[in-house]
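Sample pair:
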Amino acid sequence: MSEPADRGIMICARGLTKHFEDGRIRAVNDLDMEVATGESVAICGPSGCGKTTLLNLIAGIDRPDAGALTVGGCCLTELSSSAEDEFRRSVVGLVFQLHNLLPNLTALENVQIPMIAAGRPPRQRRDRAHSLLERIGLADRANACPPTLSGGERQRVAIARAMANEPRLLLADEPTGALDSKNGQLLLDLLSQLQRDTNTTLVLVTHDAQVASHADRILQMLDGRIVESLPRH
């Protein structure tokens, strides 16, 4: 699918540009950035500055209109559709503000979904899902469906699902946005612990300075560009 990843750099963007509305809106505008392997980075900025669009480009959900983007050793502008699917299955895990769990499936079944797409055997899927639910403190809720879980529990299941295929890169778009401050803090602590334990690269999109303070580095975004890079104090 790709050349071997540079062990030092997980994400490298050069001149990355994404237009909408026939070029009238530049959501991402000639953007340069690098994220090291194992680093946690928060992308911050006002609404409409291009944060989510940038995350979608990194995830291979959207394609750039110009520039170069390499993620985990994969040049995303050169991948075929089938290679893009494999990239999303094997390299990236996604956590959204709204958990996007399937309401009629149990927590255990929701966590298994990415592994089904990856073709992993049923017993291996179940064992991995049980292990992840135990790790996030929800082993006793494995057979519960999302409507019976609290907001914080649903987001924890979403994190377990994102980690199911052992991604090298975890992307989180406002993951605490729908949670109260207590559950938001618990979720951030969980994300940080998982990231450190597995050496997973974490890119977190947020408009909340308190959330951003959990990252190793904060990238400030404005008008589609990274305008400042700040280490955690």
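Residues 60 and 84 are 7 Å apart (CA to CA).
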